[in-house]
Specification:
The protein has 389 residues and is an alpha/beta fold. It has 2 domains: 3-125, Enolase-like, domain 1, CATH 3.30.390; 138-385, Enolase-like C-terminal domain (TIM Barrel). Helices cover 37% and strands 21% of the residues. It is built from 11 helices and 17 strands. The chain has helices at residues 3-19, 21-25, 108-123, 127-130, 160-173, 191-209, 226-235, 252-264, 280-291, 302-319, 332-345; strands at residues 28-44, 54-66, 71-75, 96-97, 101-102, 138-146, 177-181, 215-219, 243-245, 271-274, 297-298, 323-324, 351-353, 361-362, 368-369, 372-374, 384-385. Strands 6, 7, 8, 9, 10, 11, 12, 13, 15 and 16 form a 10-stranded mixed beta sheet that branches. Helix 10 links the parallel strand 11 (297-298) and strand 12. The longest helix is centred in the middle third of the chain and has 19 residues, at 191-209. The protein is globular and about 60 Å long. The N and C termini lie far apart (43 Å). The model has no long low-confidence stretch (mean pLDDT 95).
């Protein structure tokens, strides 16, 4: 590190200490990793790429405590134990700041959510206010739990009626956007039969909810080709579609061809959504697709990418006249984190809702009503660990 850069970093650190003295007073004294049980309200089957998801799940979380008695917690990974000593003894302000998120060198996948929660607790502010409160506090939310559930699995009977029962449950829960998994011909059906079933299920759901103000989204989980995607669009022509998610692996040339085809064939209002769970090289491609106006909604996972990286990428998304909607599948914690990101940074089109039930977690006050989810106004993320240690 050059002398000039060192002085610049020291000056930045000192300015943060002056601007947020409360964060400078607290020193991280203890950190532990906890496994929490939760389950989805129903059995979840296959998507176009993966076999059955099941129902009962576990969340790995990191809890941090300071010498002043403040406590925060959030999603992490079991491997955090390999580096957890790096935060012990550090002042909170030397790990995270309100304006920039985690200080460079700390892994966002391990520390982002526990540290944002802790920062909110110390400052007595919800995370969205720390992020700038630039977005609405009540935002559109979609159900991400409409899977390929007509296929039976062990004691699960399957059938098209199961898909409709699931849609009804989500509608009654408050969702007014439903995301339907497609891509059956990739693994679970012969290609032609799978495409026909994708189209049939989409039309079936549309017919059931067309008069109820419900938006439909589809997600192929990268199980289509460019031609498959066009075939699906041709099969649903004339029906409104909010977005097409992950039709195929991020690829600029085929992505451009798809966006051009959509614009010329009646799907110009349909969002092309992509960038979920991508590795660094593929993420560069996804962001370039956003810059070029190919991808309209950037999806990188709220946990895998982290709030810190979303802070950095949002100006690029805005400049491209695109928006974001972080992937949040799997855990209601991720849904609630995304709600703070949306209310904090703005420019989030809709939030992936993952309804969960748990005796180990108090998910806080994030009501879903008439198609919108409201953010918690409690300090941090406003959620609690109920599990006894």
């Amino acid at each position: 590190m050059t002398g000039g850069l060192l002085l610049k970093n020291q000056a930045f650190a000192e300015s943060m200490h002056d601007e947020y003295p409360e964060l400078a007073k607290h020193k991280i004294e203890k950190a532990d990793v906890i496994s929490l049980d939760y389950h989805w309200p129903r059995f979840v089957g296959r998507n176009g790429a993966r076999d059955v998801h099941g129902q009962h799940q576990k969340a790995t979380v990191l809890r941090v405590r300071t010498d002043q008695g403040a406590e925060g917690w959030g999603m992490t990974d079991k491997k955090v134990t390999e580096s957890i000593s790096s935060i012990i003894g550090k002042k909170v302000i030397d790990v995270i700041t309100p304006n920039h998120g985690l200080i460079k060198g700390f892994n966002t996948f391990y520390y982002d959510f526990a540290m944002f929660d802790l920062m909110g607790v110390i400052l007595k502010k919800p995370v969205y206010q720390i992020l700038g409160a630039q977005g609405p506090t009540s935002l559109p939310v979609y159900s991400g739990m409409i899977y390929i559930d007509e296929l039976p699995y062990n004691e699960v009977k399957g059938g098209l009626e199961v898909i409709m029962q699931n849609c009804d449950w989500d509608y009654n829960h408050g969702y007014r956007q439903l995301k339907i998994k497609i891509g059956r011909g990739n693994k679970w059906y012969p290609a032609k039969e799978g495409m026909e079933m994708d189209i049939k299920v989409f039309k079936m759901v549309y017919d059931a909810y067309r008069s109820k103000g419900v938006d439909l989204l589809v997600d192929a989980n990268n199980s289509y080709t460019l031609q498959d995607t066009i075939t699906f669009f041709e099969g649903i022509k004339g029906i409104p579609l909010y977005w097409m998610e992950e039709p195929f692996q991020e690829q600029i040339e085929d992505g451009r061809k798809l966006r051009t085809w959509m614009d010329k064939n009646g799907f110009e209002k349909t969002k092309y959504a992509d960038g979920e769970w991508v590795l660094p090289d593929a993420n560069d491609i996804a962001i370039e697709m956003v810059r070029q106006g190919i991808v309209n909604t950037y999806l990188n996972d709220i946990h895998a990418y982290g709030i810190t990286n979303w802070i950095k990428v949002m100006p690029t998304i805005k400049k491209a006249n695109a928006d974001g909607s972080p992937h949040a599948w799997g855990d209601q914690l991720k849904t609630h984190y995304t709600t703070h990101l949306a209310a904090g940074l703005g420019n989030i089109s809709t939030i992936e809702g993952v309804t969960c039930i748990s005796d180990d977690i108090d998910y806080g006050n994030y009501p879903i009503k008439d198609g919108k989810i409201s953010v918690s106004h409690e300090p941090g993320f406003g959620m609690k660990i109920l599990k006894r240690n």
